[in-house]
Amino acid sequence: MNKKILVIEDEIQVCSNIEQILTLSDFNIITANNGLEGLRLAKAEKPDLICCDIMMPELDGYSVLESLRKDVETESIPVIFLTAKVERTDLRQAMELGADDYITKPFLPEELIKAIEIRLARIEKPDLIRQQYEQERQQNIKLKQQIQASSQKLEESQQLADMHNEVLQKLLQDLGNPLSNINMAIHMLKQTQSNSERDRYLAILQQECSREIELLNEIKNLQVLLTPENAKILQKFNLLNHHK
């Protein structure tokens, strides 16, 4: 988008010449032939930069600048003075009021264009820095969220692994009890002489084998049931230890 430049110049021919020069440099030009009209256009159009003559009837350039700087809507618009006055006191007054540059007449087109480009570049640079900062800030926020999500998943995976191990240890202990009874029953079965004792030990073997089968089935079911969501429920009701 072309930058909008407001030219305030009471000499019609000079104003027209400046308009042509800046238009050829791809600027969007608005013109005013007195200070009052220039102030009105500055507030209405919000130009990116103002080129303003100093010596004008009704409202001179100093008064225009002073009014611009007192209005929050126009206080930050850069102003370049164009004038034939070259006294040091004039320059000091312009700068004290907040002028951004000072070009004396007559001037070459290149001088004016360069002054405008330099001033606009100084405005755009902070904006670019702010944009880069905001982009980096958003990227850092996104990266932080990804790290937090990954850390949470890692923590949940570790908790789930610990819970699997805890339950497995308990099942291994439970598996050991029936096996001990089975071994004892087998040993006693070898020693028994009566049919009634043989039947009793066979019943023990059948009972303990059934227990082993049930425990093995529980281990298989754990692979499906012990999910992170179910593990949290088990923790909530103190059915599993909490792991940090």
From TrEMBL:
Top-level taxon of origin: Bacteria
Q: Which InterPro entries does this entry report, sorted A to Z? A: CheY-like_superfamily, HisK_dim/P_sf, Sig_transdc_resp-reg_receiver, WalR-like
Record PTM 4-aspartylphosphate, positions in chain? D53
Which Enzyme Commission number(s) are listed? 2.7.13.3
Sorted keywords for this record are: Coiled coil, DNA-binding, Phosphoprotein, Transcription, Transcription regulation
Report which residue ranges the record marks as coiled coil.
Answer: 133-174
N-terminal signal peptide:
none
Reactions catalysed:
ATP + protein L-histidine = ADP + protein N-phospho-L-histidine
What Pfam families does its record include? Response_reg
Enzyme class, one word?
transferase
Where is the Response regulatory domain positioned along the sequence? 4-120
Tell me which PANTHER family the record gives.
Answer: DNA-BINDING DUAL TRANSCRIPTIONAL REGULATOR OMPR (PTHR48111:SF4), REGULATOR OF RPOS (PTHR48111)
Name of the molecule in the record:
histidine kinase
State the species of origin: Nostoc paludosum FACHB-159
Lineage of origin = Bacteria, Bacillati, Cyanobacteriota, Cyanophyceae, Nostocales
